[in-house]
Design a protein that fits this description.
0% helix, globular, mainly beta, single chain, 5-stranded antiparallel sheet
Length: 495
C-alpha cells in the first residue's frame, strides 16, 4: 500500500538557515559474526592510527596516486568538518539511521545515540552495550530495531557467542524503546530463521513491518536449515510493540535462485537475501540476494511479489544492496566482491567487478523489467593492503531529473557520483584516507556514507564518524530538502 506520510520530508524555505544533520559513530568490542557471513568481521581492524591524521590542506590526488598511510585527501568540492574517533580500537562500526537531531550508529557490540544538532560538533548522548554483529539499525517513532546475525547464547544484552549448531542459540531482531534517549529500554526480541543480517523497515498505518534478510543455511544449524529461499516478515503493532512477531516467510526463489558454482564460477549461490530497499511511495522494493537481483511489489506488505529477477554471472560475485533513483526508473545494485575484506579496487581487479551495476526499469505494472545499462567503480586505485569494494550509500535528493548518490567504499573512502546517464556514470567528488597498513591487508574504511539534511556522514569501521560538507552546483538543490528521519533502506520520496 502507498504510505505518503511515512517519511516526513519537507522542502526548506529560502530564508531558513542550514541546520544540522549528521552522524556519529564509534563503539565497543567486536562480536564474532556468523561463520557464513561474507561481510567484514573475520579480519582484524587495521593497525593504523585510531585518530584521523587531520584534514589535508586541500590536496587533490594526482592521477594514479595513492595517499600516504592515514593521509586524508579529498576533492575540492568536499570539505571534512569533523571526525569523532571510535571509542574502542578493536570494534567494528556498522550502519546508521537518523531521526531529527539524532543519529543512531550500530556497531558489533551495540549502538550509540548522538546529538547531531551541530554537525561540526556531534555529541554522544548514550552508548548501549548489546553484542551481536552486525547490529544494523533503523528507527521509527520511539522504537529502535537492531539486527543480530551472530549466534548468541540467548536474546539478552549479556549474551555471549555460542555455536549455531546449538538449538538454544539465538539470532534475530531486538527492539528498544528510545523515548528517553539517555536511557533506551530493551523491550522485545523476535527470533528469525538464520538470524537478521540486515532488516528493512516498511512503514505503515497501525503496524510497522520489517523485512529481515539472512542467508547461508546449513543442515547442522537447527534454526537455519536449507532451503532458505525467502525472507522473514516481522509485524510490529505500533501501539503494542511487545507483540511483534514473524507473520510470514515469503518464498522469493521457488526455483532456488542462482546455483552459483560450478555452474557459475565465482558467483554466490542464492540462499536468501543480503539487503532489501523499499520505496513505499511506489509500492516497490529491490532486493540484493547473493546471486540474484530482484524487483518486487510490496502493495501487500506481508506478501511481497517478485516482478522481475536478473543475474550477472560475468562480473557480479555477491549482490549486496540496492538504491532506487528519485523517479523510480532505475536501480543501482552493488557487488560486494570479496565480502568487504578484499583489496578489489586495484588495477588487477578492473573496473567492472566489485562495482555498482546500474539497471533501468522499463515497462509498467507486472511487465516491468530490469535492464542493465552500465557499471560504476571509483576511478582511484587503492593499495593492495586496503579492503575496498562497493558498499552502502544513499541518494542525494537533487531532483530535476538528475541522479546523484554518495557511497561508501571501505578504505576506498567516500564517493559522490552521477548516474543520470545510466550508461556513462562518473565520479564528481571524493574523500578518503591512505592505507591503514602498508605491510598487510587490514580491515577499515567507510562502512556507510549517507546524505542527511545538508551533510554527508560516513561511519568508518576504525576511525569513527566523519562529517563532510559537499559544495557543488550539481547538488545545491538538495540542501533545501529537509527530513525529520531517514532509514536509508526505507527510501523516501524526497520531492
Amino acid at each position: 500500500m502507498t504510505l505518503p506520510h511515512s517519511v516526513g520530508v519537507r522542502r526548506r524555505s529560502t530564508g531558513a538557515a542550514l541546520a544540522a544533520a549528521g552522524l556519529l559513530t564509534t563503539l565497543l568490542a567486536a562480536a564474532t559474526p556468523a561463520a557464513a557471513t561474507p561481510d567484514p568481521g573475520d579480519l582484524t581492524p587495521g593497525a593504523g592510527s585510531r585518530q584521523s591524521a587531520g584534514p589535508a590542506q586541500d590536496r587533490v590526488l594526482a592521477p594514479g596516486e595513492i595517499p600516504g598511510q592515514d593521509e586524508v585527501v579529498h576533492s575540492a568540492n568536499i570539505k571534512p568538518l569533523a571526525n569523532v574517533p571510535s571509542a574502542n580500537p578493536a570494534g567494528i562500526n556498522s550502519d546508521l539511521a537518523f531521526q531529527g537531531d539524532y543519529a543512531y550508529a550500530g556497531n558489533y557490540d551495540g549502538f550509540t545515540i548522538y546529538d547531531i544538532a551541530n554537525p561540526r560538533s556531534p555529541k554522544v548522548v548514550t552508548q548501549v552495550l548489546c553484542p551481536g554483529g552486525q547490529n544494523d539499525v533503523s528507527v521509527s517513532g520511539d522504537l529502535l530495531f537492531l539486527s543480530t546475525d551472530s549466534s548468541r547464547s540467548d536474546d539478552s544484552c549479556n549474551s555471549v557467542s555460542q555455536p549455531a549448531t546449538e538449538k538454544s542459540s539465538w539470532e534475530g531482531i531486538k527492539i528498544f524503546d528510545i523515548k528517553d534517549k539517555r536511557n533506551p529500554k530493551y523491550i522485545k526480541s523476535v527470533e528469525t530463521a538464520c538470524g537478521s543480517h540486515t532488516h528493512t523497515l516498511v512503514p505503515g498505518g497501525r503496524d510497522i513491518y520489517l523485512y529481515v534478510s539472512s542467508y547461508s543455511p546449513n543442515e547442522a544449524f537447527p534454526d537455519c536449515k536449507p532451503p532458505h529461499d525467502g525472507i522473514s516478515v516481522v509485524k510490529v503493532p505500533k501501539k503494542a510493540p511487545t507483540q511483534a512477531a514473524v507473520v510470514a516467510f515469503p518464498v522469493l526463489f521457488p526455483d532456488g535462485g542462482n546455483p552459483g558454482a560450478p555452474a557459475n564460477p565465482g558467483v554466490s549461490k542464492t540462499t536468501g537475501c543480503h539487503d532489501i530497499t523499499v520505496l513505499p511511495s511506489k509500492n516497490l522494493a529491490a532486493g540484493a540476494c547473493m546471486g540474484d537481483g530482484i524487483l518486487f511489489d510490496i502493495s501487500a506488505p506481508e506478501q511481497p511479489r517478485v516482478i522481475d529477477r536478473v543475474q550477472d554471472n560475468v562480473n557480479f560475485a555477491f549482490w549486496h544492496s540496492a538504491t532506487f533513483n528519485e523517479r523510480a526508473n532505475k536501480v543501482v545494485f552493488t557487488d560486494e566482491l570479496g565480502g568487504g575484506g578484499g583489496a578489489t579496487c586495484n588495477e588487477a581487479t578492473g573496473p567492472d567487478r566489485g562495482a555498482d551495476g546500474i539497471y533501468d526499469i522499463t515497462g509498467r505494472g507486472d511487465q516491468r523489467k530490469l535492464v542493465f545499462k552500465g557499471y560504476f567503480k571509483i576511478p582511484r586505485h587503492q593499495a593492495d593492503t586496503e579492503n575496498c569494494v562497493a558498499h552502502n550509500g544513499s541518494l542525494i535528493p537533487v531532483g530535476g531529473g538528475r541522479d546523484i548518490m554518495v557511497q561508501a567504499w571501505y578504505q576506498g573512502g567516500v564517493s559522490v557520483w552521477d548516474f543520470t546517464d545510466s550508461a556513462a556514470p562518473k565520479e564528481i567528488g571524493y574523500f578518503e584516507r591512505g592505507p591503514l597498513t602498508t605491510d598487510k591487508l587490514g580491515l577499515g574504511g567507510s562502512w556507510s556514507a549517507y546524505y542527511y539534511n545538508g551533510h554527508i556522514y560516513s561511519n568508518d569501521i576504525v576511525k569513527g564518524l566523519d562529517v563532510l560538507r559537499l559544495d557543488d552546483w550539481r547538488t545545491e538543490s538538495a540542501k533545501w530538502v529537509w527530513m525529520d528521519r531517514l532509514n536509508v533502506q526505507s527510501q523516501p520520496a524526497y520531492h
